[in-house]
Each structure stands twice: as C-alpha cells, then as structure tokens.
Specification:
The structure is a single chain. By secondary structure, this protein is mainly β. The chain has a single domain, classed as Porin, CATH 2.40.160. Helix content is 8%, strand content 70%. It has an 8-stranded antiparallel barrel with strand order 1-4-5-7-8-9-10-11. The longest helix has 16 residues. The radius of gyration is 22 Å and the shape is elongated.
Length: 213
C-alpha cells in the first residue's frame, strides 16, 4: 500500500514538474531499430541480383536545432546499418552468403509541435530533405563453387517523414520516441530506391533552459 502511494506521488510530482519549451537552441541524440526492405534489382558482371533482405538493423544519429514554438528547425545526421539475410542471383535464392548495407543521411528537418494533450507530453510531425550516401556489399558461392561478389556505393537526394512524442521532463531535458520513414531517388547501382522504416528513442538537451516555462 505504501509502495502504491509512493508511486502515485512520484508520478504526480513528475507531471507537475514537466515543462513546455518556448524558444531556444537544442541538441538531440537518438538510436533504435531499422527495417530495410528489398531494394535491389540490377545486373552486374552477367548476373542478375535481386530480392535482398536484411536482419534487424539499427540507426544512430544526432541533431542540432532551434525551437520557435510551434515550429522547430534542425540539421540531422543518421547512420543506418543492416546485415544481409538473403538475396537472389539469377532468380535463385543463395546460400552461404555474407554482406551488409550501410547508409548515411544528412538532413534538414522542420517540425510542427502540437499543443499538449497531456501535461508535459507533446506530439509532433516533421518532414525533411537532404543528401544520402548508401553502400551495399553481397557475396555468395553459386552452385559451381565460384565466389560471386557485388559491392558498390552511390549518393542521392533523400526525403523523410517523422511522427513522435516528446516528454518535457524538466526545463532543459526531454525524452522522445518517434517513427521515421526515409526514402531516396532511384540508386543507379541498386536499380531501385533505397528506403527504410525506423523507430527510435532519443534525449534532447536544451541550451537556453532559463528561457523556458
């Protein structure tokens, strides 16, 4: 009973102390899960490579921005990685494979922060455009035992959409969780666009804490 009363008091205290930022510079670090769908359909050295899939990938990155309620403006760098799970060579699924995909996205984002539905919890939507670099490497032994390898990289225009929740814990610190979709123009060596779905959690530090409610 005492534990229940203590937990309720702690939650009430946390919500009461939660604050909403007005304006100011901030930085954010984040990381999480990345789902990378099939993005390969191309011919290389007389072979047709297609239908690549990847194990559960990850993303990590950082942001630096400025909030002018209800808008935010920021720059972002994200690194995305996924290890190869399978692919097809001349439409035949390969075994004894190895490889990965690596991506670096440099983005300029704009957000709209909605009014709090619950004290201290702020929903937001965002959109970004920028520059993307992606590298893919694949290897397998075809039935003849010959090692077939494929590796290339390219750059392209990138875009993304974001949706999330920020919990404004104290004046200079907040936590956030978000979903993000990132896509690009067609990558020449892949024969398709590069795209990924990401779910991540992050921490935001506000430099101008004395200017917040």
């Amino acid at each position: 009973m005492r534990f229940g009363l203590f937990s309720a008091a702690l939650l009430t205290s946390t919500l009461v102390s939660a604050t909403v930022p007005i304006d100011g510079w901030y930085s954010n670090v984040f990381g999480g899960y990345s789902y990378i769908p099939n993005n390969l359909s191309t011919y290389r050295n007389g072979y047709y490579f297609s239908n690549d899939s990847f194990q559960s990938g990850y993303n990590v990155g950082g942001r630096f921005g400025y909030k002018s309620n209800p808008l935010r403006y920021e720059g972002e760098v994200t690194y995305i990685n996924g290890d190869l799970s399978s692919f097809k060579l001349n439409n035949a699924r390969q075994s004894h494979i190895d490889g990965s995909i690596n991506d670096v996205a440099v983005m300029a984002n704009i957000y709209y922060d909605f009014p709090e539905a619950v004290r201290g919890i702020e929903p937001y939507l965002g959109f970004g455009i920028g520059y993307n670099w992606v590298r893919t490497s694949l290897t397998s032994k075809i039935p003849t035992g010959i090692l077939t390898s494929y590796s290339d990289s390219d750059t392209s225009f990138a875009y993304q959409g974001l949706a999330g929740l920020s919990f404004n814990y104290i004046e200079y610190l907040s936590l956030n969780i978000e979903y993000r979709y990132l896509g690009t123009n067609t990558i020449t060596y892949l024969g398709k666009i590069f795209q990924t779905d990401m779910v991540s959690a992050g921490v935001t530090y506000r430099f101008d804490g004395n200017r917040y409610k």
